[in-house]
Design brief:
about 675 residues, alpha/beta, Rossmann fold, 3 domains, five-stranded parallel β-sheet
Length: about 675
């Protein structure tokens, strides 16, 4: 593969766009883009398959910038190659409302595959992207019809290498033999604190070899374009292992401060910028200059990508004639829609049905819908027998060589890697055509909080099957009993946190998780059996909150979730025997409820009487819906779950006692609904 002066000009243009943008914004990280420009140019100009006119073409190659602070590298590339990112957008780097925010945001910028910034997440997302490609290729490719064959490329830095989530995901990728995953390790020896020798002295190459990766080293990433290209070509030939290419670069290449941490996170001084421009043959008095030859070179690669997509579209037409049912499935997935009538498979229940733990109810749902919703793919973090996440017809997603399954399988053995699982699920969701889920104990979703937050920020449709949801798990004790977990995730914007009280509510949680496409969901599920409730239904619960039992001229409303709803119903009966009128409200998901019209929400929580909330978790947040709160603001205790519940007063009698005190305290007061606030809640 040959290179000429236009390649050099393109590389230096990328570098100087990063220099100028960070100077103009007086903020940002020029060092990484300046050092990585040669690698990025070779990748985009010689290898990457993409069509800027259709950034969502499903068989495009994926590129992830895991060290997202270097985002001007990506923005420069997207601009040069014709994505809808203008030079004015580059000039507005890091400005309010721009398409070029301080870290790559998948929701803001066409061509950005995943949101990166928190280090380690991008490489982990890339593992998910590669899993999605491998699965869809196994599902849809037929002899003569290769519909899925894209590569996933990712650049990561020393910070990503050090973050534990990257290790979790990279270990999984090695086991899964994801041969179309190619990662570039930017070996520039610099982090914010200075030389990496202060904190990172391991042999990264040997670590990745131990993970089962193929490894290469480009020793001169600043100049040796041929070596970069040769490494990529060699990596593509290795089909049974992901590849890590260590590329040794100089951070801030060309700057007087190159090779130091001073150029990592601060714009260049004006005199240094002038020096760099002169060094690269540009006018030091001009900024944001893009030579026409650079645009022309990029346009050729973009045109090749557009032609590749057109060829793919023609192949799909022929495929549809040969495999109509598979083509129908694929088109439905690309459109983001579910098979018509899938929801009819959701189970329903009556009070005559036996009490069942909601983790088992979840298993029933999965068994009912897995075959009618083929885009559902998921597994568990080594807790399959506790989460009940594997349906009867499931086949494991595994390399065929392991003997455990194949890539057409949809059940993923994530191992004890909650954070990695969360980030991988984000990558699977970002690919398109698949809806990922993963199981663990609710308390250990906290291990994955960084990835969960990015699910919400990125509007990824991912599902957490989070069992053992309370002190009701009993004997495992305080280390496993979640107290603050729901409050944490309920406080995070754009996450549905479901805690269903029975079978109908569990079905409703899955219905919403599968139909609301831009919101992740956490399903908090019980270990202990829950009764099937009088008055529940999928339709009612799908609103996030509803009146389970209505009475006129009520003295009290008791609102609760999950296992406490049945207890609250029994507490209401005790209070009724004492002459009080008690309404019962179930509130399985706050976010979904908050999205309902105000009139409906006020019908659930009307004026005129007090509301008592009951949940075996922290009371934080419940003041939004109740006047008085009954919960646990300390860690739990180890013992049989009924004894633990009794210890903390969560019995029908204990709830009734607090209900009576609530009524007495608010007697004679003109009680307004807790929903009535001076400022409306921001949705």
């Amino acid at each position: 593969m040959s290179f000429d002066k236009v390649d050099t000009l393109s590389i230096n243009t990328i570098r100087l766009l990063a220099v100028d943008a960070t100077i103009k914004s007086n903020s940002g990280h020029p060092g990484a883009p300046m050092g990585l420009a040669p690698l990025a140019h070779v990748l985009y100009n010689k290898f990457l398959k993409f069509n800027p006119k259709n950034p969502k073409w499903i068989n495009r190659d994926r590129f992830v910038l895991s060290n997202g602070h270097g985002c001007m590298l990506l923005y420069a590339l997207l601009h040069l190659y014709g994505y809808p990112l203008s030079l004015d957008d580059i000039k507005n780097f890091r400005q309010l409302g721009s398409k070029t925010p301080g870290h790559p945001e998948a929701t803001d910028t066409p061509g950005v595959e995943v949101t990166t910034g928190p280090l380690g997440q991008g490489i982990s997302n890339a593992v998910g992207l590669a899993i999605a490609e491998a699965h869809l290729a196994a599902r849809f490719n037929k002899p003569g019809f290769t519909l899925f064959d894209n590569y996933t490329y990712v650049i990561l830095g020393d910070g990503c290498i050090m973050e534990g989530v990257a290790s979790e995901a990279s270990s999984a990728a090695g086991h899964l033999q994801l041969g179309k995953l190619i990662a570039f390790y930017d070996d520039n020896h610099i982090t914010i604190d200075g030389d990496t020798d202060q904190a990172l002295t391991e042999d990264v190459i040997k670590r990745y070899e131990a993970y089962g990766w193929h490894t290469l080293h480009v020793k001169d990433g600043d100049n040796d374009l041929a070596a970069i290209a040769a490494a990529i070509e060699e990596a593509k030939k290795v089909t049974d292992k992901p590849t890590l290419i260590k590329v040794t670069t100089t951070i801030g290449f060309g700057s007087k401060l190159q090779g130091t941490h001073s150029v990592h996170g601060s714009p260049l001084k004006k005199e240094d910028a002038a020096h760099v421009k002169e060094l690269f043959g540009f006018d030091p008095n001009e900024s944001f200059v893009v030579p026409q030859d650079v645009y022309d070179s990029a346009a050729k690669q973009a045109a090749a990508g557009a032609a590749a997509e057109e060829e793919w579209n023609q192949l799909l037409v022929k495929y549809e004639a040969e495999y109509p049912e598979l083509a129908k499935d694929l088109k439905l997935r690309i459109s983001g829609k579910l098979p018509e009538g899938w929801e009819k498979a959701l189970p329903t229940y009556t009070p005559a049905d036996p009490a069942i733990a909601s983790r088992k109810l979840s298993e029933t749902v999965l068994n009912k819908i897995a075959d009618v919703v083929p885009q559902l793919i998921g597994g568990s973090a080594d807790l399959t027998g506790s989460n009940f996440t594997r349906w009867k017809t499931a086949v494991d997603f595994q390399p065929a060589s392991t003997g455990f399954g194949d890539y057409a399988g949809r059940y993923i053995r994530y191992g004890v890697r909650e954070h990695g699982m969360g980030a991988i699920k984000n990558g699977i969701a970002a690919y398109g055509g698949l809806i990922p889920f993963g199981g663990t104990f609710l308390n250990f979703v906290s291990y994955a909080a960084g990835a969960v937050r990015l699910s919400a920020l990125s509007e990824h449709q991912v599902i957490w099957v989070a069992t053992h949801d309370s002190i009701g798990l009993g004997e495992d004790g305080p280390t496993h009993q979640p107290i603050e977990t729901l409050a944490h995730f309920r406080a995070t914007p754009n996450i549905s946190v479901w805690r269903p009280a029975d079978g109908n509510e569990t079905s409703a949680a899955y219905y919403q998780a599968l139909t609301v496409t831009h919101t992740p969901s956490i399903l908090a599920l019980s270990r202990q059996n829950l009764p099937q409730l009088e008055g529940s239904s999928i339709e009612k619960a799908s609103k996030g909150g509803y009146v389970l039992k209505e009475v006129e001229n009520a003295d009290l409303t008791i609102v609760s979730t999950g296992s406490e709803v049945g207890l609250s119903v029994d507490a209401g009966k005790i209070l009724e025997a004492q002459g009080l009128k008690v309404r019962i409200v179930s509130l399985p998901d706050w976010l979904t409820f908050d999205r309902q019209p105000e009139e409906y929400r006020l019908s659930v929580f009307p004026d005129g009487h007090p509301v008592l909330s009951v949940e075996v978790m922290t009371t934080h947040g419940w003041e939004r819906y109740s006047h008085e709160q009954f919960g646990i603001n300390r860690f739990g205790a180890s013992g049989p779950y009924l004894e633990v519940y009794a210890k903390f007063g969560f019995t029908p009698e204990g709830i009734a006692e607090r209900g009576l005190k609530t009524v007495e305290f608010w007697k004679g007061v003109n009680v307004r609904s807790p929903l009535r606030k001076a400022f409306a809640q921001v949705k």
